[in-house]
Amino acid sequence: MLLKNFYNILFFFLLFFSCNKKNDVNLDVNPSIDSLSIYFSLANDFNLSQSHRKKFNQKAYAIIIKQPNDSLNRINLFKIANRYYNMDNLKEYKKTVQVILKNSENTKDTINIIKAFTYLGDYYASQGISDTAFIYYFRAEKIYLKDYDGYNVAKTRLNKALLKYNESDFLGSEIEVFKALSAIKGKEANDVIYESYNLLGVINSQLDEHNKSLVFHTKALANIDEKVIPSVFQSRATSLNNIGFVYQNLNKHKEAKLYFKQGLEQKNLIADKPSLYAMLLDNLAYSEFKLKEWDQLPKLFYQSLKLRDSLRLTAGIITNKIHLSEYFAFKKDTVKAIQFSKEALQTARSSKNYRNALAPLKQLAIIEPQKAAEYTKQYIHINDSLQKAERKMGEKFSRIEYETDKIIDENSDLETKNRNLLFGFSALTMLGLSLFVIKSQKAKNRELLFKQQQQIANEEIYNLMISQQNTIEINRIKEKKRVARELHDGVLGRMFGVRINLDSLNKVVDETAIEKRNNYLTELKNIEQDIREISHDLNREKSELINNFVAIVDNLFEDQKKTYKSKLISNIDSAIKWELVSNSVKINLYRILQEALQNINKYANANTIKIELKKEADHLILKITDDGIGFNVKTAKKGIGLQNILFRAKECDGMFDIKSTKGEGTIITVTAQ
Predict the structure, then answer these.
(1) Buried b vs exposed e over 256-289: b needs ≥16 C-beta within 10 Å?
(2) Residue 506 in contact with residue 514, Cβ under 8 Å?
(3) What is the rounded radius of gyration, in angstroms, for the C-alpha atoms of the chain?
(4) How many whole angstroms separate alpha carbon 139 and alpha carbon 132?
(5) pLDDT tens-digit map of 257-312
(6) Where residue 477 falls among pLDDT bands split at 50, 70, 90?
(7) SS3 253
(8) Would you call 501 exposed, middle or buried from its count of C-beta atoms within 10 A (0-12, 13-18, 19+)?
């Protein structure tokens, strides 16, 4: 039996207007009128190669785009878009429609805005981007509803129904079709009625409501009006094929065969719709196979497959090969049966439409029973994935409608409020002006002029004050942060070290202790001097830090070794030319070292600390490693210490990385430019 992948390709022949509505061929153009009309005519001349037609269309576009943005200009741009559509050049088609939409919005041209929405919906639908296509159709529908344009509301709802059908939202699609029919109730619209009944027939067939499907397809056939629906669309052949297909699903192959034959007998079918002709051939062959009428088999299958191959109809090719596989399996030719099924599966996978793979997998499970479990597993996996995707898409359609309606309602309420405010304000203004004129027009005019000038002056002064205050506030905050960092990174670390050392000497009274106390008192004086320098000039760093960086770092390391039990191993690359390193980088590296050592001393309980400062390419790399207790990096990054290190690294235009595991120590790496 045929599966959904067959019906998906069938459906593209049901809603024929969506496929052919761009057929804007103007064969009545007189080439002598002007070059633009000549280019339009040549761009739609299917006797020319596509590259030539594209060049003529580009020349027409170059002329149009330089013209004023009026209604005629936008009509001509739609002609450009239509010709790109006929060339299957959807990329240029989309670009042109986006230009039209922008131009239409600039001039508030509602008619062409809606038309552009519909064209963009068609583009995204052709690309399989159903949610975006749905948004554009829905926006078009809302404007049509506002304009009470029932016919176009119905057409747009049919486009939405088609999107939902293609995403297997059959019930949602059915609801949209009935909403389309309600929009044209009591109106002459045979084309919409035909499309609606056709789609309802297809939907009910998918829902296994085959009797209902027959009713709707019969109604569709009865509503074909060739004055409204041109015969080139082959709507009668389409409906005959659909009815035959329903009988095929009901295993009534004799009835199905009659309808397929009638469809093939329609005039000019192979010229107008070769893909439909191939489909009818395949369906007829399949019904004859089920009836065990072998005279034309497998010839009809091969004939259909050849035509579908030439037209590159992927889903049709897959269906044909599945039918051939069933035929040869019945004839006990297992090799050919497996060959055609595997070819169908390969084609399905290369098409990137996973639904196409279901029928080949099902057939392979039947004809290769030893591998049935494997094929069934793949089938279930793909089917489950498709069902989840379809469910999400259905929810997305509902969400789009809800959110769009909500935005439209909010905009409508806002427009009403603005309009009421405008009316109220206008009324008050008119009343005030009337009183103003009655009392003293000249005096009031002078007073009003003076007040206006005074108001402008006051506003300028106020804005200047606000701007100045903002600047002062920003600078004040920056200075506060910088002072906090300087005090935290420099002074507090040293004071902490001095305090620890003095505490350790409290119980010692010998001369060595006295000498050390004196040294630490001297250090306190130095700290006092640092604080004084910070308060006098926040932008100045100590000159010895800048001019003798290595010596200052060594002093820091010596203090560390004297004060703490942890073993400190340091290595500063002698190849670094510190005179070429900017003062800013040296200052920030020193502060990072101070902060890191302070944190290790407070929290790490480390036995060994390794510090490495080396040069790689154009970068300086500072690496600080300890074998302490480690910590949770995510939690610790919120602390002021690590925040300061991160800030300092950024000041160097560098990168900061920290790795730590509880019980395994910590590694801090800073890369400075």
Answers:
(1) bbebbebbbebeebeebbebbbbbbbbbbbbbbb
(2) no
(3) 41
(4) 11
(5) 999 999 999 988 888 888 899 999 999 999 999 999 999 999 999 999 999 888 88
(6) confident
(7) helix
(8) middle
Which tokens go with 99? 């230009």
Say how many C-beta atoms besides its own lie within 10 A of residue 538's C-beta: 12
- The set of residues, in sequence order, having a beta carbon less than 8 Å from that of 225 and lying 6+ positions away, is 190, 191, 194
Full DSSP string of 520-589: HHHHHHHHHHHHHHHHH-TTPPPHHHHH-HHHHHHHHHHHHHHH-SSEEEEEE-TT--GGGS-HHHHHHH
Q: How far apart are CA 62 and CA 54, in angstroms?
A: 12
In sequence order, the β-bridge partners of residue 609 are 568, 626
Per-residue tokens: 255: 């009835």
Q: Which residue has the tokens 């040869």?
A: 328
Residue with tokens 């390419």: 617
Distance CA 388, CA 411 (A): 34
Dist CA 242 CA 225 (whole Å):
18
Q: Cis omega (within 30 of 0) on the bond before 31?
A: no
663: left (phi over 0), alpha (psi -120 to 50) or beta: left
